[in-house]
Amino acid sequence: MPEVRLEMGTTVALPKTALPGLIANLKKMGYDVIGPQVKDNTIVYASLGQVEDLPRGYTSDQSPGSYRLKYTGHENYFDITPGPQSWKMFLFPSRLQMVAFHKPENSAQWEVTNSSQPNPPYAFFGVRPCELAAIQVQDRVFLRDDYKDPFYRKQRQSTLIISVNCLHPCGTCFCASMGTGPEATAGFDLNLTELEDDFIVQTGSEAGRMVVESLPWKPVSAFMIQSAKNAIDDARNHMGRSLPHPEELPGILLNNLNHPQYDDVAKRCLSCANCTQVCPTCFCWDVQDLNDLSGNNVRRERVWDSCFNPEYSYVFGGNSRPNTRSRYRQWITHKLAGWYQQFGTSGCVGCGRCITWCPAGIDITAEAAALREEVV
Asked: Which residue ranges in the chain fall short of pLDDT 70?
């Protein structure tokens, strides 16, 4: 019988019992394997020590302003949907030292230390399709043709992505509306679909192929492929939310900046910036110079910021967005309209985090529908 070889771009089946071997192979290749884990009654992303760290048996209930993690005891590893964290915390960290200055005593000269060194190569394990789309959106922001952010580029080019198709969307998910899920179609090194006893594995790169090559993979059957398709179709038809025709929103939003709906949402919005901090695509930042009491050591750091922060829009002479109404309008119009002009895509991937983690329960899909209803 001729030898069957695993080629890049092929689809195979991998028994769930081989999952520890997959993680071990990633570590042998030098990757810090980052995956979803249960901590403090939510899902966080942290280094995986073993396969038992994954949230097997868990699901989550999410609604506007509400999140609850539940253990049901089922046998699946990836029935949960993400918590407040997103993968951008590794590629675009919340605080990054750009440069440091030191002046030795009795010297008038400053010594300059270059920026923070990149972390070891990451393997993101368990990336949802909406999150994969969010990484690709941030690629457009930080890896533009005219300028490439050196900090982001160094970490991104060494990162391997193992995505997992989402078969159990939660109550605030609307990725199907945005065309970003529940199935991953591109941008991954490996893509998994979890079945009862096996994973269907799509190889998207040579690095991904190398991870699986030594494992006990087998040809995938038509029955498995149909089972996966049925599960993905079922997830697509059971989204908790929807945002119909997002391609129409840029014109509606940008041509109706004085819509009365903004007055209504301003009465509820706390301008707390939760939505931007949990968003996997938001990229606003500030640069701060921090010096010690001696005055001989200075660090220049890039830190996350938010358009909901009143100081973010302060310029000489005053604040260009002095109230919550103007700040919320800036956020939703930029997210659903302005991004198309800047980056050729929506700034929203339909993950629903901004809905779940808003303490006031403000729903971006409901606000967009209200803005659309009175205009169309």
From this structure: 1-4, 116-118, 374-376
Strands in 57-179 per DSSP E? 58-63, 66-71, 95-102, 111-113, 122-127, 160-164
CA distances from 363 to 35, 265, 283, 332 (A): 28, 10, 21, 11
Q: What does the DSSP 8-state code read for residue 1?
A: -
**What pLDDT is attached to residue 374?**
60
Domain match, 251 and 193 both: no
The reply to whether 222 and 251 lie within a common domain is no
Alpha helices in the chain (DSSP H): 19-28, 88-91, 129-142, 150-156, 175-178, 206-213, 222-236, 249-254, 261-268, 274-278, 324-333, 339-343, 353-356, 364-373
Tens of pLDDT, residue by residue over 67-122, are 999 999 899 999 999 999 999 999 999 999 989 998 888 888 888 887 766 678 99
Type of residue at 234: D
Whether residue 159 contacts residue 226, with contact meaning beta carbons closer than 8 Å, is answered with no
Can you give the pLDDT at residue 315? 80
- Both 221 and 162 in one domain: the answer is yes
